[in-house]
Amino acid sequence: MRKTIDYYYWNLKSFIDYLSSESIVSINDVNSSVLDNYILSQKEKYKNTTSINTHLRAVRAFLYWCMDNDFLKPFKIHLLRQKEEPLKLYSDDDIQKLIAKPNLKECSFVEYRGWIMVNWFVETG
């Protein structure tokens, strides 16, 4: 429970500090353009989309609560899209090197175990 409270405290504090810096003193003055500007300020502060979305989840929960209780006019709040990195796949040559059977008389147990695991992964997909 304490971690949840701390999560909302620190993430909402960041939003409230932003509102103060923009001279927004009433929750009634918060709208989608204010939130968009907050997101832009977060993009300057944090380069990682995950960090920005972490802050935004707490702000979104609070603002939706405000909307449900008629403190704000309803508007949609969307999280930022994450860029999906393409998977780095092994080439056929790399796979052949990985599945090449080691010399059982000279290899260590760890090398043999690794070879068995790689073969198992390759065969099962």
Report what the structure shows.
This protein is mainly α and 125 residues long. It has two domains: 2-68; 92-124. It has five helices and no strands. The chain has helices at residues 2-21, 32-45, 49-68, 92-99, 109-124. It is elongated, with a radius of gyration of 25 Å.
Instruction: Describe the global form.
Output: elongated
Q: What is the gyration radius calculated from CA atoms? A: 25 Å
Class computed from helices, strands and strand pairing: mainly alpha
Largest sheet: none
The helix content is 55-70%
- What does the oligomeric state look like here? single chain
Residues in β-strands, percent: under 5%
Mean pLDDT: 89
The helix count comes to 5
Task: List descriptors.
125 residues; mainly alpha; 2 domains; 62% helix; elongated
Helices and strands in order:
Elements: H1 2-21, H2 32-45, H3 49-68, H4 92-99, H5 109-124
Helix pairs in contact: 1-3
In short:
The chain has 125 residues and is mostly helical. It has helices at 2-21, 32-45, 49-68, 92-99, 109-124.
